[in-house]
Every structure is written in C-alpha cells, then in structure tokens.
Amino acid sequence: MRRVEPVREYFPLGILEVPEPVDAVDLTMADGAHILVRRHGDPDARVRIFASHGNGFAIDGYLPFWRPLCERYDVVVFDMRNHGRNRPSATPNHDYDHMARDMGEIHGAVSERFGAKPTVGAFHSMSGRAAMKDAVEAGWRWDALVLFDPPDIPPEGHKLFDMMVKFEYRLADWAKSRPARFSDPSGQEAEYTNGRAASRWVAGTHGLMARSILTPAEDGWELRYPGEIEAETYVANIPMNLWPKASEFGGPVLLVGADPDVERPSPTATANKAMAEEGGYDYVAIPGTGHMLQLEKPEACVEAMETFLARHGLAA
Predict the structure, then answer these.
(1) Element (H, E) at 10
(2) Contact 204, 16 (CB under 8 A)
(3) What is this structure's pTM?
C-alpha cells in the first residue's frame, strides 16, 4: 500500500480549492429531489469510493480527506439532498427514509452511467446513518462500508440513550439559532475558526467549508440548507431505532470513531465505541479527534480506511 501523503503536499500554500470533476451528472430522485454527483480521481481505477458528509455541511469541505484518494481510486462525491451544490427541492423531504433511498438510487445511477466496479461507501455522520439504514433495511449494495463517527443512538433503556438524546437536542437548539446570513463567506469562516468544535480543523478548511455551505443572495450570502431543517434532522435521528450488529449488514463494515478517551470526548465517540463492542464491528478510533475527524486528521482517517480495505482486497 502506498504511504498516505500529508495534506500539505496537496495544498502547500494552505489554500484549498476543489478541482474540476472528471464528469458530473445531475440525478433526480424518485420524489423529485436533485443530487449532483461529481466524479474525481482515476476513472480507470479498479475500486470506486463514494463519499458524502454530515448534517449541515457539504462534501466539498471534506476535500483534505478525499483529495488524496483521487490518486488511486475512482472517487464519486455528492452532497446529501438539499445540501451543498444540490438544487433545493420544492418539497424538501429531508428525512432518513428519503436519504436512505437516495443511497440506493445514487449507487445504481452511478453504476449505470460510469460502469459497475467494486464500490466502497465512505460516509460521515448523517450520511453514514443513511447508509446504515439503507444497508440493513433495503439490502447490501456495497463491497465495503466505512462509517466515520455516525451519531448512533442506542435503544431506549441503554445506559447511553439519554446522553445521545440530550446531545441531539443540544445540536438542534444550536442549529435553530445559528446565523443564516452573512455579508460574505468570511463571516461563516469566522464562526468556524472561533468555535471550539472546529478548532482542530486543518488549515484552509474553515474557509472552504464556509464557501461550500453558503450561496449568494440579494443582500449577501445565506445558508443553502436552512438551520430549521438542520435542527429537525438532528432530532429525527432519535426515534430511528438503528443500533444494528455488524452481522446485520451483508458485507464488511468499519466504524471509524472520534477519540473516546480525550478529556471531553464527543458523545458520538462514546456511542460508537459502545456499538462497536456490543455489535462486533471492526472499529478504530482516531486519537485526538472529535466528531469532525476527517477535517482534523485526514491522513489518519485515510490510513485507517485503507488498512481495512486492504484486508478485504479493496485497497489500491
């Protein structure tokens, strides 16, 4: 396996710019929602990696994680419905039932458009939960899944249930109160830069993510994905009753968690460690990281993923 190149080798000046895709296709989901799928990397690579993001973010902002993969994989990135580069839907239907179905529709459409090959899903947080729901309820469609710190909520009565419920409601309150408009993207960049949760992001990511989640408006810039819907999505995670064992999937799954042993661990880090232990998962925690681990230590996240893929004959 090739070494994982440091992020600075791709962005020596600390300026992160998303490259032009090799190809792109604007998909229409069954309910009319639009998903713009972009293809990067090597179209002739043996393995295709799909990547998407967490609630309120956009996959362009995860560039430090997926850009190095483009050297040796066929990389397909997409924003979840109503996020990022996608056109907003007249009927948002922003719930996990629709997001899970999107996973199947996107996977099928990409295989039809670009050709079938071994596929790996590399999904963070909300997109990870959607992929989990799709896989255990609709059937296995991947050759492997790598789930980065999904916000897993155990069944009611579990010792961690109350902790995770409080966490989701706290995030919902924050989302409803977050600024929705800025004079320019630097305002959102400052929100990230000055916030504790984003304090460990690699250089340049704060500005890139800000540009990725905002859109020009008449009086400045506004969130593409309204805070009210973001809040509803946090709360919608609670009643999903999705705490599967690894054996419920039809193939190999890796949980890559935030560090549960730091002084103030993310609740998701604690929950993922518990689900891995109780459910028999392949699991690794990235030392010194919080929930946005792919933006904090992208090289370590890539290395953990490729080590897992190598065991299953899927690494480049």
Answers:
(1) helix 7-10
(2) yes
(3) 0.94
